[in-house]
Amino acid sequence: MSQHSKNNYVISADIGGTHITAAVVDLEKKIIIEDTRTRISVDSQGAATEILENWSSALIQACQKFGSPAHQVALAMPGPFDYKNGISLIKDLHKYEAIYGLNIKSYLSEVLKIEAEDVLFRNDAEAFLQGEVLAGAGTGFRKVLGITLGTGFGSALSFDGITKDLNLGSEPYQDSIADDYFSTRWFLRQYYELTGLSVSGVSGLTSMVKHNPVVTDIFEEFTANLSLFLKHIIRAEKPDVIVIGGNIAKASNLFLNGLIDQLAGYVENVKIRMALLGEDAALMGAAAGFATKAGRGFSFAPVKDTNFNTQS
Predict the structure, then answer these.
(1) Which of helix, strand or coil describes residue 119?
(2) I want to staple 258 with a disulfide (CB 3.0 to 4.6 A). Which of 68, 172, 213, 223 is the partner?
(3) DSSP for 159-208, written as a single string
(4) How far, in Å, CA of 83 to CA of 16, rounded?
(5) What DSSP character marks residue 242?
(6) Max CA-CA distance within the chain?
(7) Three-state DSSP state, 275
């Protein structure tokens, strides 16, 4: 055992569609140890060996920066995934298909030389929302609906501090599923269909918005689709607030006001807040699993309530 207590430190990681971010979380002080933060690009359509080596490399680098071996590892992972047993079930989602059926828990246990029971997985949308409820835009609300807009469409619901994945991305929508409409690939496909041109990402679209009315049209269609989809879950769950995160949320100036206006036509008293913590939300939310496992409460110091995009 190292000089650091096993129970107080977690190597936490957020698995994205194009990267992994890892850092050490101090459960006792309830902080992310900044100088351990490590980010590595990952080709989610690459070979299994390449993907797993990038993931383990980020975790090892965070450990090295911390100056201590990892004894507990928590990962915020996109689904579908067997979170208890650590087995990837991702297929037909244009990402991480090479690791389908692989036991990631066993792999990381062997590479990091820790017990398999000390490797925890949590749905990434669930971890994101747990972090925002603990320390960000969801703090102080009893019932929070969280959605993440990025490589995929994530969703979770938090009630009295207990957060669960909703998996709305798999719900039917129009001629497919919600994940196909509320993710980066929808934007890229729409732009290609309308212009015959390719663009590297949503950030590429936003950079053209002032000079290209097609981009405005695409965001208006996205807004209309998202409001239509969300109205049913909002009516059913009646959340106190909706928290929106993910890389597409960085373009909120192009859809937030329209989303608020359109949702107001379907449900009363809609309150929307943009996520505050970025990747830190998922890192915090994943690490919190060890505090829950140990039977102790876990909350970070709340972020000051500033720069919210809200509507009551």
Answers:
(1) strand
(2) 223
(3) ETTEEEE--GGGSEETTEEGGGTSSHHHHHHHHHHHHS---SSHHHHHTT
(4) 16
(5) E
(6) 60
(7) coil
What sign has the CA pseudo-torsion 84, 89, 95, 96? positive
Element (H, E) at 76: strand 73-77
Q: Provide CB contacts within 8 A for 266, sequence distance 6+.
A: 227, 231, 234, 235
Distances (CA, A) of 217 to 4, 50, 77, 223, 254: 54, 38, 32, 10, 10
What is this structure's pTM? Answer: 0.86
Q: Tokens in use for 36?
A: 């351990």
pLDDT for the residue 62: 96
d(CA 47, CA 279): 25
Stated as kind and residue range, the H or E segment containing 271 is: none
**Span 221-238, pLDDT tens digits:** 999 999 999 999 999 999
Contacts of residue 41, defined as CB under 8 A and 6 or more positions apart, other chains included, come to: 18, 19, 54
How far is the C-alpha of 136 from the C-alpha of 275, rounded, in Å?
Answer: 7
Q: Is a pLDDT exceeding 90 seen at residue 149?
A: yes
Task: Map out the domains of the chain with their CATH numbers.
Answer: 9-127+278-293 (3.30.420.40), 139-274 (3.30.420.40)
